[in-house]
Write a structure and sequence with these properties.
By secondary structure, the protein is of the alpha/beta class. The protein has a single domain (15-214), classed as Alpha-Beta Barrel (TIM Barrel), CATH 3.20.20. It contains 7 helices and 5 strands. The two termini are 30 Å apart. 33% of the residues are buried.
């Protein structure tokens, strides 16, 4: 099947994105389908996953942050596969993960730092405007400014960049989904505010070069 997809793509297929989002709380309703709790640990899943590297395909890892230890296990089992962690690891800020944001941040940060040890893993830095992140920006009468977004998102963005380095981070808008919380231009201005202190070469990596390398794009 993968070989047929590669042929049909005429060179455009770069990888497979498979969501395994699972949660005990309100985040479960955001899933488009029901998945087992630890699907990436399943031998049948891994039998299929093992073909990606041989075919030169990447894997987009999309899950919620409490599931990140499962990704670490997958990375240890397949240490050379090209993997992209989606949306800073799927941060949750809704019940039951909304009681103490600092505690949740500490748990998430610990997982991010553990995953950064795998050199073949890169991370998409964004997706923080989705509703399950728990900011409640969609409930405001006036949309947030880029300054407000930068203040709220900075700890998460900087944690990813500090852990992975600019050469393994790629900034993302996640539009149109993030449109639930803010405007497109405001989102990019917020990310620019957060990354203002980085050098020109580091910004080039964050906003272009990492994505070009990971997805094998000519720029």
């Amino acid at each position: 099947m993968l070989e047929a997809l590669i042929a049909a793509g005429n060179g455009r297929l770069r990888g497979i994105r498979h969501g395994v989002c699972w949660d005990t709380g309100n985040a479960a309703k955001f899933g488009r389908r029901q998945v087992p709790q630890h699907q990436v640990l399943d031998p049948t899943f891994r039998k299929g996953y093992a073909h990606l590297q041989r075919l030169g395909l990447s894997f987009e890892s999309w899950q919620f942050h409490p599931q990140l230890p499962d990704l670490a296990d997958l990375m240890r089992a397949f240490p050379e596969s090209n993997v992209i962690l989606n949306h800073v690891g799927g941060l949750l800020g809704i019940p039951p993960h909304d009681r103490d944001r600092e505690q949740v941040f500490g748990i998430w940060r610990g997982h991010i730092r553990e995953l950064a040890q795998f050199p073949n893993l890169s991370v998409k830095v964004g997706g923080l405007g989705m509703l399950y992140c728990g900011w409640d920006l969609h409930l405001r009468d006036v949309p947030p400014s880029s300054e407000e977004l930068a203040s709220a998102w900075r700890p998460y963005v900087e944690t990813c960049i500090d852990a992975f380095g600019p050469s393994r981070c790629m900034m993302e808008s996640n539009f149109p989904v993030d449109k639930q919380s803010c405007g497109y231009g405001v989102l990019w201005n917020a990310l620019k505010r957060i990354t203002q202190r980085y050098s020109a070469a580091e910004k080039a990596a964050l906003y272009r070069d990492t994505a070009a390398r990971v997805y094998r794009l000519a720029v």
